[in-house]
Structures are given as structure tokens and as C-alpha cells.
Amino acid sequence: MYTSSESNNIKLFIHIRDFLEIFMLIIIMLRMSSMYLVINPFYDSQINELCYNWLVNILGSLIVLSIILEKIKCSLLQIVVAGISYIYFFDYSNMVNYNTSEFNKEFVKIFFLMFFYFVINNKRPMFEIVWKRYSTIVLVMASVSLFFYFFGEIVHVIPHMDLKYYNYNSWLPGSNYFYLYFVNYSQNRPFLGINVVRNIGMFMEAPGFALPLSFALWWELFGCENIKKHRVSVIVITMLTTFSMKAYLMLVLLVFLYFWKNCKQMGWEYFREIIGYTFIGIVALLVLYIVFIDHKVFFKMGSIAWRMQDTIAAFLTWLDYPIWGCGYSNQKEMFAHFLDPAHAGYTAGLFNVMAYGGVLMLGFYLISLLGYFNVSKNNKWRAFVFVVMFVTFLFMTSMQFRYFTIFILAEGLAMLASPYMSDNKKTTKYKRLKYKVKGSVCI
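The chain above was modelled as a monomer; its predicted structure follows.
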């Protein structure tokens, strides 16, 4: 047992760690193409570098705090996984020898800090802790965005403030509400003679907002023991107000998989076929719309065509460098394969992984994702839906080297090496333990 003084110190360390973990998740979100990265005065103050320094310092502090609070005991498997990962990164840097310093700084350093943090905390139910907090942060963001979206952009009760943001090598006009909610005029779309305002939250584009909303909805539907309808409702309504095809596709996919999984439980087993055919019908209608109605936009180099061009260019680049890839973010090699370089978007994340890192980097990504099945032995659906959603976003979005992706890879590989980082039984046990300190917080 701890003395009163020791108990107070431990409680303080735990609260500091909880705060830093939340701050870490917020910084990871900020680096997901948020408006804070491109508006004045943040853009001029090099906020990207500032976020990097914050993240490194926070991860370092979290590792030190965890060493103080946890009994560190690394298994042979954890050491082997870390060693193999290091050898792969070392060989990749030497074999490709392109943009090595940037790769080591932005990817390798962040990856190992996150990996070691998860490994050190393998006695805590880190999977549940992290994603519950992530979902709560997104829920707050969604609530704030809905408030300003309806009362600011729809009802016009709250006045907005103008701003300039940097994109496409120029300063563009936009507006904001107390720097908590942003409006990107280029994102608005005409529909039946009405200018539809898209809810972008704190992000540059509506599809960028769709990503955190989708992962939060995944947790609320598949991660929680008991679904809280008010949380799901806020997230779903926010996804609908983005008017983003990515958000709608993910919403349909997650709701479909949720009902498919729970049909038998709900006594709706005979509806499975109906749900399946409905889902197939929706996908077929979307394809028909693109082919027969939106084909003019497609062939005039619209958004869909740009992404097809990105995919083809990335695939052709991978064929040139199939094993090791052409190098970390080596856009020069990919640029040569674009049919229309003026519309290069580099949006094909999954094929970018292959182009920049070859089959070896793709294998590294896939092996890391296997860890989510290891941590969800009693909930295969949770892991399956998570992996499907992540790979789908990776295919549609240029997120292959973002901090959010590195975070998912580091967590997955740590869970692959740490089978104990798992599930509800452990969460309950951890809540009872609480370091034997009254009033401490674990989640």
C-alpha cells in the first residue's frame, strides 16, 4: 500500500498523463489537414513544426510518466518486433536513399515513440482508453460545428469573421466563428439553385472532416458495450451536414455492418437478405449515377478523374520500383506518370504506400493492422470493421504518412507484440485496480 503522500503524487502523475494523452490526440487531429495549419497567423509561425515539437515532447513525457507509474517488463516478442521494425526502416533508408532525414524525423521517430509508449503501457487497456477519448474529442468537435453551422451559416444569428488561408500557392478568402469553426467558400456547392454550405468543422475540406467522424462513429457502434444514442445522433447528423461522398459512404457502410452484425440479436435475422440487397442496390445506383449522369464531369477532369489519375500514376510508379519503392514522398518519380500534371492531387494513399515504399512497406502496414485482431479476440467484428474502414480511407485519401496513420500502425504493431493490451475483461480489472489509489482516473 502507498502512504498518503505517495498516493497524492501518483494521483497527480495519473492526471498529468491523462491530460497529455488527450493533448496528444488533439495534436494528431490538428495535423489532419485542419484549417489551423493554413490560416494566419499560424501559417507564418510554422505551426507544422510546432505541432511536431509538441508531439515529440508529449510522447517523451508520457513515456517517462509511464515508466514511473508502470512496472516495465518487456517481453521477448516486443523486443523482436521493435528490432525487426528498426532493421526494416534502416534498410529502407539506405536502399532508397531519398529524403532520408525527413523520413527518419517525421515517420520513424514518431512511430517508435508511439510504439514504445503503447508497449510500456501494455498493462492498461490502451485500446479502449485511446479510442474512447478519441471519440469524445470528435463528439465535442461535432457538437461545436453543428452549433455554428446552424446558428451561424444557416440561421445567421451569429456573425462571422473573415480570414485568409493558404492553399494552392495563394491566399484564399474564408471565414470563421471565434476560430472554433471555419467556412471554406470553395467547398460550398450549388444544388437546385441553392448554395449549399458544407460543414467542414475545423478542417480545410468536408472530406477531411469525414475521416475523424467515421472513426468516432465506428467506436460508438462497435467499440462501446452500450450504445449511447445521443452520441451517435450528433455524429451522424454532423456527417450528413458535410455533404461529403466519403462521409455518406462510410455512414452507409458502418450502419449496414452494424445491422448485419446485430440482426440475429434483434430478432431481425430474416432481414439480412433485404439489408444486403439494399446495400448492393445503393452501391449500384452510385455507380450508375457516375457512369450515366456525372460522366461529363468525369471526362472533364473532375474530382473523380483526378483521383483515378493519381491511382494510375502511383501504380505505374510502383511497377518501376516494386520492392523498395521510389522513396519517401518522392513526388518527382510519380509526377512523370501523370497524364495531366496540372491536376495532380496525390490522393491515392494505398497506392502511394506501394509507390513510395514498395511491397515491403505495404507488408509493414498490413502486418501492423493484424494487431487489431489480436487485441479484439472477443470482438472480431470491431477489428474487422476498423481495418476495412482504415484501408478504405487509405485508398481514397492521401493519409499514408500522416500522424494519425502512424499512430494506428504503432498501436497495431504494439498490440501484435502485446496480447495483454485487450478488451473488456481487462478494462474492468484495471478499473478495480486503479493503482490502489482512491480517486485516480484510468479512462
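The chain has 16 helices and five strands.
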